[in-house]
Amino acid sequence: MVVQSLAQPLVNGILLGGLYALIGIGMSMVFGIMKLTNLAHGDLLILSSYLSFGITQSLGLNPLLTVILVTPVMFFVGYAFQNLLLNRMLGKGAESPMLVTFGISIILQNSLLAIFSPDARALTSNLASQSVIITNYLSIPVIYLVDFFAACFVILILNFFLKKTYPGRAIRAASDDGNVAKLMGINIKRIYSIAMGIAMMTAAIAGVLVGMTYNFYPYTGTQYLIIAFGVVVIGGMGSIGGTLVAGVILGLAQVLGAHFFGTEMQLLSGYIVLLAMLVLRPQGLFGHN
Amino acid sequence: MLKRLTSNRSIKYSALGLLVLVLLTVPLWGTQYLVMLFLLISLYVAFAQMWNLLAGYAGLISLGQQIFIGLGGYTLAVLTEYYGLTIWQSILMGGLISGVVAAFLAFLLFRMKGVYFTIASWITAEIMVVVFSNWAYVRQGMGIFIRSAYKLSTNDIYYAALALGISSVILVQIILRSKLGLGLMAMRDNEGAAETMGVEIFKSKLYCFIISAVVTGFTGGVLYLSQAFIQPTAAFSISWTVAVIFIVIIGGIGTVVGPIVGAVIYVLLQQFLSQYVGIGMLILGVMAITVILIAPKGIMGTLQQKLRFEIFSSRRI
Amino acid sequence: MTSNNVLLKVEGIDVSYGDFQALRKVKLEVKEGTVVSVIGANGAGKSTLFQAISGLQKPSEGKISFMNNDITGCLAHEIVAQGISMVPEGGRVFPGLSVLENLIIGSYTKDARKKKTKLLRRTYDLFPILLEKANQLAGNLSGGQRQMLAIGRALMSDPKLILFDEVSLGLAPLVVKDIYKQIEAINQEGTTFVLVEQDVRRSLRASEMSYVMLAGEIVLSGKSSELSEESVRKAYFGI
Amino acid sequence: GTKSASESSGGISAEAQRADKRGYILIGIPSPSTGPLAGFGEASPWVENRALTEINKDGGILVKELNKKLPVKIKIVDTESNPTKAADVASKLVLDDKVDMLLVLHTPDTVNPVSAVAERYGIPTVSLDEPVDAWLAGGPYKWSYHAFWTVDDLSKQFMSIWGSASDQNKTVGYLFPNDSDGIVFEKIFSQKLPAEGYKIVDPGRFPNGTKDYSAIINQFKKENVQILTGVMIPPDFAAFLKQANQLGYSPKIVTVGKAYLFPTDVKAIGGTLAQGLTSEVWWSPYNSYKSSLTGESSKELCDAWTQAAGKQWTPVLGFNYAGMEIVADVLKRTASLDKEQIRQTIGQTDLNTMVGPIKYNEDHYSKTPLLGGQWTQGQGGSWNLEIINNTQHPDSPTTAKIIFPLP
Amino acid sequence: MSEIITVENLTVAFGKHKVLDSLSMGVQQGEVLGVIGPNGAGKTTLLNTLSGRIKPQGGRIVYQGIEITRVSPAQRCRMGIGRTYQVPCPFENLTVYENILVGGVHGAGFSERKARDKCLEILSFTGIAEKRDILAGKLTLMDRKRLEVARALATNPKVLLLDEVAAGLTEVEVKAVMQIVENIKNMGVTIIWIEHILKTMLEATDQLMCLAEGKNITCGVPQEILASKLVEEVYLGVEDA
Ligand SMILES: Nc1ncnc2c1ncn2[C@@H]1O[C@H](COP(=O)(O)OP(=O)(O)OP(=O)(O)O)[C@@H](O)[C@H]1O
Ligand SMILES: Nc1ncnc2c1ncn2[C@@H]1O[C@H](COP(=O)(O)OP(=O)(O)OP(=O)(O)O)[C@@H](O)[C@H]1O
Ligand SMILES: [Mg+2]
Ligand SMILES: [Mg+2]
């Protein structure tokens, strides 16, 4: 009986965690590796949702397919963002770039409002309402499964990229010591721009899936920023694999918190687990100091 | 050489004295609106000085200072509404409670370093939102009207704010010139080396955190005097700290004058932009980026670098 | 092995940090296949000279050419691609990367990537400790181990010219001896070296040409075999 | 008209002199133009300007002290949906722009801080569109007057909707978050519902922004909840509804406040999930009220909006319009810009507006009527709010029969 | 004379790798102990453990008769243990003078006025007096090393831990450093000194200890140690012909 009633929250928590990880992964990369606090991460994610929305409206594509178009667009958005703005303040401390990203955040929110109006939007598809029913006590929404597997897929690819490819290693080297990285033949401005572009590609995928799972508005980005921060901090900055575990922990904490202590404890239990993790492992699960 | 220095100094002090005099007499010659502007500026100066003390000097970049704004405001609301304490008693208590809470939080938060501290401080503030939204004693999400503030005149609040603003500047200056300040700056640059040179890391951070919490708590109290209505999402909103980050970074982080310049710009800009409905915030964002692109170290930071001159210097010679 | 081709030519460069002029009209010539040493007291401008050559500092005056190409305005990463590699002073490694990754990053340039495996073997032969610590974070290495890693990493780009700042800094005597032997061996294979070394005797012994710097200027230069230790000392302390 | 010019100017109030100098009467309107509440502010300033055209048609409003008519101007400022900002901009309107009155609408986050500012600076203020109960906490008021419905009315309205659908087990599931609306509403619902024989299943006050509702849904399933009620922000309710559907939970009737106020919210829920959702209706084009300014009907106002903005009507339209009606009426009756006089005239208001009769009681509020509505999908996929219940105000017609149970 | 610092069975491990392996040693009050050993032998780790930056897994450290194994680094500094870093880590945004002042005010516990005189003295003593108002971030490597010594001195140490302060210096500069160390010694300060440049260090050291793989392989009078076969093998290498 206990098992039966626990099955659903457990599965939901884990799958929700996948989505959380996906939201946080791009953040983990810029935050953990490039030491950049990107306060616009959530808004850029929602920008992708809107892009996808625009495409579905005009081309009538299935929202899931818009990923093919949205990710490259977001790559260029990220590339340009880094190249035109953030690269200009390399080595000038962590606070100035933070303010720039904050500027971008409010510009994005208000531009989205101006373009798309304050109306609620959603990327509707028949996926959203389907579930793979397993038993009476357990049913798994298809969209959750898609979210989770997309997260795993992105994490695998990104991990491979950062750990095993030259550009990936170059990104990490550049953030460790920019001047010495130049001496290795790394064009650090370019490599940073590429890194931001890639981070935005993951945000694009997250944005499309978030848009298919939840409604969104021009101002929804902030709440995803918090989730992203939580995931990054639990997982350990820059630990790409850590984000998945962190996402799942956060998802489980919330869903199980709601299950055992009542719904009012949902966010709170997530936060408390987060803080507890931080106090016990101040450098995150997979981080090192 | 020495003579020039001293005359320079006396010019500086008379200028500062004159400035204080002007500020003190604003209600006599200015409109009520001008008084309100100076009120807001003074409060943001106090708040920004405290954030700057943490971030610019102690290297503690906090995204959770709204905790103390909220606590200051809520203490004011609860004590005046429920217990009939006077406004000034309540504000004093708000500062003290903020200090106590800060001391407690320090044991949690100081285990974390760098950005981990930053995020944890924000998460703590979000926890405050959830707690206050569920806490029947403070009327949950409904919020509390601070009715005793209805009767207060803008001038009264202005003097409280001004006192807070000026004393925050003096306080920061005193701290920076003290043993504590030197330790903080050393710690910001290299914690390990500072520690092996005798700087008590935890204690220094703790004092700094508590001081800034107390003053921010006072600021919260006075801010909510002019607001007269408090509810959890706004009181513990990240937007307080975002505003203060804007102020300190635009003005120049790690300088004493920077937060003052930043506060003036921020308040005037906010007021000016409120007439451009819908695009006001957009312009604010563009402004933030432009200023930082032109002056990456903030206005005062960049000016000081160019002119090699500091109005309030914490340099030892 | 010595040929007469001039590999690197520095023609009267000036470099300043703000108001402070760190290099004045510095002239230097490095022939292909030789070992050249730069000697000078603390603050003489040796590191600044290296930074100017490798593109980290822009000369305000003068010209630097490498294999007859003008590289004065080139960015650091472009210069590396042309075949100049530098060991920065004080063993600056990438602390967040493992030892192996540090080495692999060393062969970032297109040409070096192809020879990665071979170069890696050579590095491990030179510094066996690096193989032992291959999967550890470079940030956890001891001071001397870092220096070794920095040297190994520079060798990984298989450069035509290596700029070597503070060769023996922090290394145990045994290792220092080894390194000079290796420099000789690698030089035999055709790689050119410019060394900064504090031990005057050792640097005169290891090089063919020497330049002595004092307060941003070259005050003495010549064949190492023809310079006496005394004259060098005199030159660089300006007595 | 026997007084000489010099005499009268000596006796004129500062307010009147100022208005004379600038040539108009100024009304300050803090409104959420941006931020999460921007949907509420969307109809501004279109509605206000429509009313203004009528108000200023014959030169505006007579000011006795000046012995002439002055046009009315409005100044809308953005609260950014932030209570702190709302208080700031309201203060600026009072101190800098020196407005003669404040008009404020839309949710406690906008109205409460502005009411507090009004009391501080002593400025006559008319507010609408926030449940009366939440607004009353700031009282007793001297300068602020409010019009909207009470939560008590709302609970009655909800129960009459459920009453018109016979076949359910009277087990009600709560969806109240821990924001101000959620808390106020839950308290009153919990007093009223059991008295009418309803059994309550309350999963607790959850925070806004909750992403997973499976715990609630499972509890409702287990307790066989057939009626859902509450007050939720639209994105959260949409998430809830989708997840309920995915988990195979289908209540017989859903009546949730605020969650699908705007047609776009309904559309964004996606598919046909929103079919049959019921809610309270504050105002609709189908009611019988007319503009006190022009006599135009609610329907005409809606049609004009649809034509101008290309959007469906929303209940906000009527309230924004009614606010302007009250302001115009008060100014006309006072015929003076003296603040104390304006304040007193507001208290004596007795006006039939676009949202119903307004008559403030001694606690400074006036209740506006509620109806019951249901969303149905029409041809071409558009969503329409039909009026299915008028038990509380039988003079307003219903437009359809309730669909029950939910498809 | 008594031992001012005694180390018993000190063990430090990172993961499985034992960097200090049950190391025991001691320094007499007022003497200079030279420490040599191959790269990675654990010399810096020993200093880190003595100064409290690293907590040992086993063993104890006794200072002036008091066990300080669990005492915080700041506390140890105030008790009189000062140190330099092998990789200099100045406070980059403070001036040279302020860098030193930190030691005087916090480490030595002087009032700022009293510390001032002391710091000025140290500035000229270490030869960076003319750089005193320069931001430490702009110093050359050598000046950073001098600053390291100056900062450590400012804490008014009874025991000074030096980590390769002469590395990278020219011969003349090394001589100057030697002189500085000599002077410090004459003030009665006990010194533990890690260095790879033996020639110079020898003159000043009373005892020489050789570490290898975390063990104290031999310790004694410098000449004897250098002559030992073992040390030649692990550290010096066979002298060139
Ligand atoms: N970033 C900088 N900003 C300002 N001045 C600098 C900077 N780097 C070096 N200098 C100055 O330039 C001069 C030359 O420095 P450089 O590092 O080239 O000397 P060096 O010969 O390598 O000395 P060392 O033997 O100490 O390494 C020094 O006087 C130094 O103070
Ligand atoms: N934090 C750490 N994590 C893992 N290994 C470490 C860490 N710190 C040091 N080590 C290892 O411990 C060993 C000893 O390091 P230590 O710095 O004490 O050497 P050292 O004797 O000072 O050498 P050098 O003469 O090169 O400075 C080295 O092999 C190093 O890789
Ligand atoms: Mg150098
Ligand atoms: Mg060492």
TrEMBL record, chain A:
<keyword id="KW-0812">Transmembrane</keyword>
<dbReference type="Pfam" id="PF02653">
    <property type="entry name" value="BPD_transp_2"/>
</dbReference>
<keyword id="KW-0472">Membrane</keyword>
<feature type="transmembrane region" description="Helical">
    <location>
        <begin position="98"/>
        <end position="117"/>
    </location>
</feature>
<keyword id="KW-1133">Transmembrane helix</keyword>
<feature type="transmembrane region" description="Helical">
    <location>
        <begin position="191"/>
        <end position="212"/>
    </location>
</feature>
<comment type="similarity">
    <text>Belongs to the binding-protein-dependent transport system permease family. LivHM subfamily.</text>
</comment>
<dbReference type="InterPro" id="IPR052157">
    <property type="entry name" value="BCAA_transport_permease"/>
</dbReference>
<feature type="transmembrane region" description="Helical">
    <location>
        <begin position="224"/>
        <end position="253"/>
    </location>
</feature>
<protein>
    <submittedName>
        <fullName>Branched-chain amino acid ABC transporter permease</fullName>
    </submittedName>
</protein>
<dbReference type="GO" id="GO:0005886">
    <property type="term" value="C:plasma membrane"/>
</dbReference>
<feature type="transmembrane region" description="Helical">
    <location>
        <begin position="67"/>
        <end position="86"/>
    </location>
</feature>
TrEMBL record, chain B:
<feature type="transmembrane region" description="Helical">
    <location>
        <begin position="276"/>
        <end position="295"/>
    </location>
</feature>
<keyword id="KW-0812">Transmembrane</keyword>
<feature type="transmembrane region" description="Helical">
    <location>
        <begin position="238"/>
        <end position="269"/>
    </location>
</feature>
<feature type="transmembrane region" description="Helical">
    <location>
        <begin position="91"/>
        <end position="110"/>
    </location>
</feature>
<keyword id="KW-0472">Membrane</keyword>
<protein>
    <submittedName>
        <fullName>Branched-chain amino acid ABC transporter permease</fullName>
    </submittedName>
</protein>
<dbReference type="InterPro" id="IPR001851">
    <property type="entry name" value="ABC_transp_permease"/>
</dbReference>
<feature type="transmembrane region" description="Helical">
    <location>
        <begin position="12"/>
        <end position="29"/>
    </location>
</feature>
<feature type="transmembrane region" description="Helical">
    <location>
        <begin position="35"/>
        <end position="55"/>
    </location>
</feature>
<dbReference type="GO" id="GO:0005886">
    <property type="term" value="C:plasma membrane"/>
</dbReference>
<dbReference type="Pfam" id="PF02653">
    <property type="entry name" value="BPD_transp_2"/>
</dbReference>
<feature type="transmembrane region" description="Helical">
    <location>
        <begin position="206"/>
        <end position="226"/>
    </location>
</feature>
TrEMBL record, chain C:
<dbReference type="InterPro" id="IPR052156">
    <property type="entry name" value="BCAA_Transport_ATP-bd_LivF"/>
</dbReference>
<keyword id="KW-0067">ATP-binding</keyword>
<keyword id="KW-0547">Nucleotide-binding</keyword>
<keyword id="KW-0029">Amino-acid transport</keyword>
<dbReference type="InterPro" id="IPR003439">
    <property type="entry name" value="ABC_transporter-like_ATP-bd"/>
</dbReference>
<dbReference type="GO" id="GO:0015807">
    <property type="term" value="P:L-amino acid transport"/>
</dbReference>
<dbReference type="GO" id="GO:0016887">
    <property type="term" value="F:ATP hydrolysis activity"/>
</dbReference>
<dbReference type="InterPro" id="IPR027417">
    <property type="entry name" value="P-loop_NTPase"/>
</dbReference>
<dbReference type="GO" id="GO:0005524">
    <property type="term" value="F:ATP binding"/>
</dbReference>
<comment type="similarity">
    <text>Belongs to the ABC transporter superfamily.</text>
</comment>
<dbReference type="InterPro" id="IPR017871">
    <property type="entry name" value="ABC_transporter-like_CS"/>
</dbReference>
<dbReference type="Pfam" id="PF00005">
    <property type="entry name" value="ABC_tran"/>
</dbReference>
Automatic annotation (TrEMBL), chain E:
<dbReference type="InterPro" id="IPR003593">
    <property type="entry name" value="AAA+_ATPase"/>
</dbReference>
<keyword id="KW-0547">Nucleotide-binding</keyword>
<dbReference type="GO" id="GO:0015808">
    <property type="term" value="P:L-alanine transport"/>
</dbReference>
<dbReference type="GO" id="GO:0015192">
    <property type="term" value="F:L-phenylalanine transmembrane transporter activity"/>
</dbReference>
<dbReference type="InterPro" id="IPR003439">
    <property type="entry name" value="ABC_transporter-like_ATP-bd"/>
</dbReference>
<dbReference type="GO" id="GO:1903806">
    <property type="term" value="P:L-isoleucine import across plasma membrane"/>
</dbReference>
<dbReference type="Pfam" id="PF00005">
    <property type="entry name" value="ABC_tran"/>
</dbReference>
<dbReference type="InterPro" id="IPR027417">
    <property type="entry name" value="P-loop_NTPase"/>
</dbReference>
<dbReference type="GO" id="GO:1903805">
    <property type="term" value="P:L-valine import across plasma membrane"/>
</dbReference>
<dbReference type="GO" id="GO:0016887">
    <property type="term" value="F:ATP hydrolysis activity"/>
</dbReference>
<protein>
    <submittedName>
        <fullName>ABC transporter ATP-binding protein</fullName>
    </submittedName>
</protein>
<keyword id="KW-0813">Transport</keyword>
